Amino acid sequence: MDNVTVFTHPLIQHKISILRDKRTGTNEFRALIEEIAMLMGFEALRDLPLQDVEVETPIETCMTPMIAGKKMAVVPILRAGLGMVNGILALVPSAKVGHIGLYRDEKTHEPHEYYCKLPSPIEQRTIVVTDPMLATGGSATAAVDFIKQYGGKHIKFMAIIAAPEGLKRLHEAHPDIQIYVGHLDRQLNENAYICPGLGDAGDRIFGTK
């Protein structure tokens, strides 16, 4: 899968291990999600287009590169994907933020859309879709479907942990997008939870059950 990057950086792996610990509290968990997103984003955004602009330094005027065009859109899958947004915005503060709301049917585990709001013009932006967990791949696949329907073209997907089943499904459905994963876990269990996983990311980010 040439379009898939699974990170091996020691800082990312260390922070994911702390996320997994059930003793990690809400405040620390939330901060770690942002930090990991920023570390992943540093690599995922290495191909942002640049253009030379004129800048006057204290010494002289020069041409120097800055991010070109309409820049970026960060699109979290609600609600857990919100936890990764600030990590990306720390790198590109000018990025616009859209939202996609999906809920998973408890019996079929398939996603259903209840909200979609994207910055315009979406087709001119590099779009980073965020969701800490790539489990069955249903929500991720549906989110990318919606973005493409609205005209999105340059799409990246970022997940902190993924199950092989979900990664395979997203890759097969959208082989044209770039997928970034912090860690590839072992498998899904009978309830479609990632094993060993880290529990429910949304509940742990927002302190709910």
TrEMBL record:
5-phospho-alpha-D-ribose 1-diphosphate binds at R79, R104, D131, P132, M133, L134, A135, T136, G137, G138, S139, D200. Its cofactor is Mg(2+). The keyword Transferase applies. GO terms for molecular function: uracil phosphoribosyltransferase activity. Belongs to the UPRTase family. NCBIfam families: PRK00129.1, upp. Uracil binds at I194, G199, D200, A201. Coiled coil: none annotated. Allosterically activated by GTP. The gene is upp. Pathway: Pyrimidine metabolism; UMP biosynthesis via salvage pathway; UMP from uracil: step 1/1. Residues 7-208 form the Phosphoribosyltransferase domain. Catalyzes the conversion of uracil and 5-phospho-alpha-D-ribose 1-diphosphate (PRPP) to UMP and diphosphate. It catalyses: UMP + diphosphate = 5-phospho-alpha-D-ribose 1-diphosphate + uracil. Keywords: Allosteric enzyme, Glycosyltransferase, GTP-binding, Magnesium, Nucleotide-binding, Transferase. This is Uracil phosphoribosyltransferase. It comes from Lacrimispora defluvii. Binds 1 Mg(2+) ion per subunit. The magnesium is bound as Mg-PRPP.
